[in-house]
Design brief:
By secondary structure, the protein is of the alpha+beta class. Helices cover 25% and strands 24% of the residues. The chain contains four helices and six strands, in the order βββααβββαα. A three-stranded antiparallel β-sheet has the order 1-2-3. Strands 4-5-6 form a three-stranded antiparallel β-sheet. Strand 5 and strand 6 form a beta hairpin. The radius of gyration is 15 Å and the shape is globular. The termini are far apart.
């Protein structure tokens, strides 16, 4: 990371109709993050798994909405997605990275879908055989 404090958000707007989170930072950059990208890259254990290679590939999230977004201290927000997912805590730094690396992240997501033989709109499979039985 470069020296100096991490960028702080100056504005955060949920665009429900276009399903985009618009976030402006104090370094002047403004990112428009699709809800789908946020959902697919949620930092929660439910999505990220419990270590490298444990990520759970998310599909069928093109139409996902964000019902509410709650501040977490002064460093993060916690969105509640319309599919019930609400365990992801997005720090400002993480949101900044999602914005700055959005193109690479989409490509990585599409590559992972292709590897799994799925498309974006495939329904989420029930988490059969996953070692951590999340009861949601």
């Amino acid at each position: 990371m470069e020296g100096g404090p991490p960028p702080r958000p100056t504005a955060l707007t949920l665009h429900q109709a276009s399903r985009v989170l618009e976030i402006g930072f104090d370094d002047g950059r403004v990112f428009r993050l699709p809800f789908e990208l946020l959902r697919v890259y949620s930092p929660s254990a439910e999505v990220q798994g419990h270590g490298p290679g444990q990520e759970v590939l998310q599909t069928g999230k093109r139409e996902v909405g964000i019902d509410t977004i709650e501040p977490v201290g002064h460093y993060a927000v916690q969105p509640r997605f319309s599919d019930g997912h609400e365990s992801g805590i997005f720090t400002w730094q993480y949101l900044y990275r999602l914005g700055a690396e959005q193109d690479q992240l989409w490509r990585r997501y599409e590559a992972r879908l292709a590897e799994a033989g799925l498309d974006r709109d495939a329904p989420m499979a029930a988490a059969a055989g996953s070692a951590c039985g999340h009861g949601h």
